[in-house]
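Table S5 (text form). Sequence records supplied for joint modeling of the two-component complex.
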Amino acid sequence: GQQVMQIPQYQHVQEGEDFTTYCNSSTTLSNIQWYKQRPGGHPVFLIQLVKSGEVKKQKRLTFQFGEAKKNSSLHITATQTTDVGTYFCASAGGTSYGKLTFGQGTILTVHP
Amino acid sequence: DVKVTQSSRYLVKRTGEKVFLECVQDMDHENMFWYRQDPGLGLRLIYFSYDVKMKEKGDIPEGYSVSREKKERFSLILESASTNQTSMYLCASSFLGGRWDNYEQYFGPGTRLTVT
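The corresponding structure-token record, covering 228 residues in total, follows.
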């Protein structure tokens, strides 16, 4: 099945620093979704990107979909302690009908 | 608000026991999913269902079965629990997408299962 590789696995930052996580695929993705899971919580949908080269912003979060639709990134500007958690990318495959393949996730720790 | 509920937050079972994990959603979603989450491995799909009585294997179906008798309810069954099935189990639901598109998934709070 379709696989998405996510890096890094862990990221420690000082509060106020920026953070980026990357999601890569060897095949073209039809779309990509991003989820956030707070410690002790469950994944919560953040956004979906569909178009080649698409960029979307949510306050301090910037999401990008590569021109070739094989990679995506999530960038957080000036991290806050509320940003801690695990960020997952997920993508549908050609036989999807709703099924997603999730990346391994990036665990973000923010030191005050 | 979409609500996905799971029958237990924590569960401790013995090796060889039959285990039922239940999930209920209240948004009339066609799709329902069972994942397990282990450190460093992300979310791995066990089974999903796109309609009542319909099911498809995910990436790691071995040792599990599922049941969907009603649209709102999706059960995960461990026929004979083993210690390597100790994990966090997450249920999710979504509307039915097309072949190349999909809708966001809504997750339940998870069940942390320990098999001793």
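Note: The radius of gyration of chain B is 13 Å.
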